Amino acid sequence: MAKKSVEDIEVQGRRVLIRVDFNVPLNINMGAISDDSRIRASLPTIKYLVDHKAKVILCSHLGRPSGKVVEGLRMVPIAKRLSELTGLPVSTASDCMGREVEDKVGALREGEILVLENLRFHAEEEANDAGFASKLASLADVYVNDAFGSAHRAHASTVGVAKHLPAVAGLLMKKELEVMGRLLHDPERPSACVIGGAKVGDKMELLRSMMERVDILLVGGGMAATFLKTQGYEVGCSLVEDDKLGLARRLLQKAEERNVPFLLPVDAVVAEELKAGALTRVVPTTDIPSCSHIADIGPQSIELFCGKLAKCRTVLWNGPMGIFEIPQFAQGTRSLATFLSTLNATTVTGGGSTAEVVQEMGLSGKMTHVSTGGGASLRFLEGATLPGVSVLLDKE
Ligand code: ADP
Ligand code: MG
Questions:
Q1: Nearest ligand to residue 355 Cα
Q2: Residues 6+ apart with CB under 8 A from 344
Q3: Chain segment 169-213, per-residue pLDDT in tens
Q4: Is there a cis peptide before residue 89, judged by omega within 30 degrees of 0?
Q5: How many angstroms separate the CA atoms of 384 and 393, rounded?
Q6: Is the Cβ atom of 270 under 6 angstroms away from ligand 1?
Q7: Cα separation, 249 vs 251, whole angstroms
Q8: What is the DSSP letter of 33?
Q9: 3-state class (DSSP) for residue 70
Q10: Residue 117 to residues 74, 101, 110, 190, 351, Cα–Cα distance (Å)
């Protein structure tokens, strides 16, 4: 069921509490923001509310202060960056509730922006404490959730507040739900899913869910070794999850039963040491040397995968094809990213590392959608109902 968004309600002159995801990476020594894409992702909603003369109150968590005030995790630098990005004044408070906050909210005029202090300075936030949620809600007339990346967690600011206020989606949340919802329920076909990353264990449910929805599955990354081993191949010293071999076998069987091609890499970049400068070789996956690790998919696999994807109208990609952090093992991931960016199809990426590669290569604008929610997009694509989404008002 579609959810109501900020566009479906009256906001002028009203105090609007927006849960955003301002959990940006900080440079540890300098306390500077090393990547502001999450702030940028929330700009459409903030601008919409400013333009529609709402009184804008923003709240977020930042890092893991575990219920204590941590000076290095205050929201001040984020408010400053937001002010630079919007060209508008942005005020801050030294807490997310209490007298000072109430006074500042009371003084807000239409179109003005206030950023509350880090929600996780209070342990009650993550505990979804009812009293804390009700105090937070008392600051506003309307609640907007634009933090898709936090929607899989039932916290006070993602779930608890919605009990007390009309709750709607922000524009980023709306886009995530629309694009990913279509991917799950009504993808243009043929559709494909490319899955990589370190472990099968992390992506088991995703594989299971996508198998029921797509026409072809392609698997690379570290997890490919577990699938290769379950088919009887030697994988040298590659990372294998021995406790997942049975599950991997059942997934392959299920794909066969459903007639969904499940492709594994046919060649791999291997190395004896997984570090920069290591000696590498390209070998067929049927012939992995005994002391080697699979560190990336090889050129023939890239060709095979891209050949299959070329025929698809929808592609979901989650998880790098190799240890992309080390340049020698990044080719598979980078080639796939480049290929998808040129594909005339709906292309969606999920996963933190995947988004990082796409962004770093400057290809975000060439994909249909780069999901901002790591764990949340994974849960969503597994078919789960996200607690922070289910509390939002349904669209009639
Ligand atoms: P995402 O965040 O996009 O969902 P994951 O978290 O599942 O992706 O996996 C990302 C990690 O997987 C990266 O740190 C990468 O180095 C690792 N990885 C990819 N291929 C391999 C491999 N062959 N061996 C070990 N680790 C790998
Ligand atoms: Mg990850």
A1: 1
A2: none
A3: 999 999 999 999 999 999 999 999 999 999 888 898 999 999 999
A4: no
A5: 18
A6: no
A7: 5
A8: B
A9: coil
A10: 6, 9, 21, 47, 27
In sign, the C-alpha dihedral spanning 84, 85, 90, 96 is negative
Measured over all CA atoms, what is the biggest interatomic distance in the chain, rounded to whole angstroms? 70
For residue 320, report the distance from its CA to the centre of ligand 1, in Å: 5
Residue 295: per-residue pLDDT: 97
Please report, for residues 7, 156, 173, 324, 381, the alpha-carbon distance to residue 170 in angstroms, rounded to integers and kept in the order given.
Answer: 8, 17, 5, 33, 20
Residue 364: Cβ-neighbour burial (10 angstroms; 0-12, 13-18, 19+): middle
pLDDT digits (tens, 9 = 90+) for 131-152: 999 999 999 999 999 999 999 9
Percent of the chain at pLDDT > 90 equals: 93
What are the structural domains, with CATH classification, of the chain?
Answer: 6-172 (3.40.50.1260), 179-381 (3.40.50.1260)
**AA identity, residue 164:** H
pLDDT of residue 29: 67
Residue 34: predicted pLDDT: 85
299 lines ligand 1 (CB under 6 A): no
DSSP 8-state assignment for residue 5: B
Q: How many helices (H) and strands (E) does the chain have?
A: 15, 15
| CA distances for 308 relative to 301, 303, 304, angstroms | 11, 9, 6
Distance, CA of 3 to CA of 349 (rounded, Å): 22
What's the gap in Å between 131 CA and the centre of ligand 1? 40
Lookup result for tokens 């091609």: 261
Q: Ligand 1: does its nearest atom lie under 6 Å from the Cβ of 221?
A: yes
Q: Give yes or no for a contact between 372 and 149, defined as CB atoms under 8 angstroms apart.
A: yes
- Give this prediction's pTM: 0.91
Inform me whether the pLDDT recorded for 1 exceeds 90: no
Mean pLDDT of 77-106: 98
Indicate the helix (H) or strand (E) that contains 269: strand 267-271
Q: How far is the CA of 5 from the centre of ligand 1 (A)?
A: 34
Q: Grade residue 25 by pLDDT with cuts at 50, 70 and 90.
A: confident
What's the angle, vertex CA 199, arms to CA 197 and CA 205, rounded to 5?
Answer: 95
